[in-house]
Amino acid sequence: MFTILIISVLTFAIAFLVMALSSLLAKKTIMDREKNSPYECGFDPKGSARLPFSLRFFLIAVIFLIFDVEITLLLPIASTFNLTNIFSWFFTSLTFMFILLLGLYYEWFQGALEWT
């Protein structure tokens, strides 16, 4: 029980020492307004909230989310290769990839039509 107490005290002491050193060494003398303000996706956080939203930023965010979801859906396909029939695995993977490509082309053409 005593050794657990000593290890806990040493852990907290080392963590406190590292945090104190990092805060002392990382202080910058020049305080800039831009560096001290939070980053809000390119918007000025102190400005009006009723400004029009950038459609280009919205499309990039949506495409990022789509690809993020696609990756989470594609990874299990690779791991089930050894567990299933090769024809069934290939057909399912091909169908899924075809649906994803159709969605990608749809998004791309919608964006291209919107910018013209």
Architecture overview:
The chain has 116 residues and is mainly alpha-helical. It has one domain. It has four helices and no strands. Helix 3 packs antiparallel against helix 4. The termini are far apart.
Sum up the structure in keywords.
NAD; mainly alpha; EC 7.1.1.2; ubiquinone; 116 residues; NDAH_ubi_oxred_su3_sf; NADH-ubiquinone oxidoreductase chain 3
Topology at a glance:
Elements: H1 2-25, H2 33-36, H3 55-79, H4 86-115
Helix pairs in contact: 3-4
Outline:
Its EC number is 7.1.1.2. This protein is mostly helical. It has helices spanning 2-25, 33-36, 55-79, 86-115.
Number of domains: 1
In percent, how much strand structure appears in the residues?
under 5%
Oligomeric status: single chain
Q: Considering DSSP H and I runs of 4 or more, what fraction of the residues is helical?
A: over 70%
Derived structural class: mainly alpha
User: H/E element string?
Assistant: HHHH
| Number of separate helices | 4
Number of DSSP strand runs? 0
Describe the sheet with the most strands: none
Query: How big is the Rg?
Result: 26 Å
**Low-pLDDT segments:** none
What's the overall average pLDDT, rounded? 78
For the termini, the CA-CA separation is: 72 Å
Basic shape? flat
